[in-house]
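Table S2 (continued). Query chain:
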Amino acid sequence: MINIEYDKAIFLDEANLRWQDDDILNCSKKIFSLDDDKETSLIKIEKDSTFHNSNKVNSVEIFVLDGIYSNEFGSFKKGTYLKLPREDESKITSTTGCEIFKKTNYKQNTVETSIVDTSNTYWSQGQGNLEVMPLSDQTALVKWPRDEVFVPHTHWGGEEIFVLKGTFMDEHGEYKIGTWLRNPHLSKHFPYVKEETIIFVKTGHL
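Corresponding output:
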């Protein structure tokens, strides 16, 4: 088990993690958190390879970081977000090779399916100068303009972040592209950026 202490803040830079071969699924992974069958990780699928079926998937949340990801619902390019109540792993493949950020078996109270092509979806005005793109219940992309400073705030139900572009900062450190952060319930911080930054954010689920 890796990083299952949900009452503690944690951050991991994917550049400091090594790819691990997953022979059961036929892919490579950089694992951020693993708790029994719940997993948060980066997954790399080689060109024209197909997943083996582990029969352990009851929900998935995916953001395609590179290449084309295919499953029984279709083929999805870089920048696509998927939230699915179930996925048939034996139908997962990639004609180009791809890399994805994936959360598995973190089933919410409501069954929800959401597929969003973020490259063709409008941003909405958020607090201050932030722009927000809702992806599903509790999940969104947030765009920070250069030199934006946010108000200090408390995370009710916690917060999880994956940095997609730029460098996210707070009083605890600097988190460049590819960094995953998890802040626990009632944690506090004062975030800001120096360059345009985009983060994948989940809130209230911890």
